[in-house]
Amino acid sequence: MALGLPAIPFTFVAHVLGIAGIVLVLVWNLDFRGGLAWESSNKSLIFNIHPVLMLIGLIIIGGEAIISYKSLPLKKEVKKLIHLVLHAIALILGIIGIYTAFKYHNESGIANLYSLHSWLGIGVISLYGIQWIYGFLIFFYPGGSSSLRSESLPWHVLFGLFVYVLAVGTAALGFLEKLTFLENSGLDKYGSEAFLVNFTAVVTILFGAFVVLSVNSQAPADDDYAPI
């Protein structure tokens, strides 16, 4: 299944794209959208937490968790723990991010779960949670038998990549949805904010692509890559 190419260059590009994504989403929400707030009379500040946490948490930290086996020169057990913890952080931030979207809708009198983005978002966070719990029980504690772990590993990797790709697609759909709302409210379609949002979505997709490429590339020759 490996591409026959070293994973390290792909992981390096992914790191750079991840940093770029964090900078872009923060500039958008802090500079163009007015900042972040848990409680505010300006309810849009509450919503701004949503794209920040979803991108930084579920997409970027989640992606770093996926490529941790191929990018870190550490022992397998250490990388397994890093993989588990990063995914846990991503999941927690994702749950908080989704909660802020509901909070914004409820306090603004807007209906919940009416868009494709919201439907897919609930599906992604649910599948992500199931994947994490399964991985924790089978590969970490209490841990399955050696045969069960070996049989589960390909499916764990495949299902994890499926959920991650779905998360990236859902994020891109979210950027499109928010930008459409803003443009319908008067935002200049060819203005700097519109371009910033589109570039953020492109960087998100590219980051996801390099995560997938990293996973399907060869780990360093002296690396005992086997996340079980």
How do the helices and strands line up, and which of them pair or pack?
Layout: H1 8-32, H2 43-47, H3 49-71, H4 76-108, H5 116-140, H6 146-184, H7 192-215
Instruction: Please state roughly what percent of the residues sit in beta strands, choosing from under 5%, 5-15%, 15-25%, 25-35%, 35-45% or over 45%.
Output: under 5%
Shape: globular
Largest pleated sheet? none
Radius of gyration (CA) equals 19 Å
Extract low-pLDDT stretches.
224-228
* Tally of DSSP helical segments: 7
Helix amount, in percent?
over 70%
- The structure class reads mainly alpha
Distance between the termini: 18 Å
Number of strands: 0
Mean pLDDT: 93
Secondary-structure element series: HHHHHHH
Summary tags:
disordered C terminus, 228 residues, 0% strand, mainly alpha, transmembrane, Cyt_b561/ferric_Rdtase_TM, transport, globular, iron
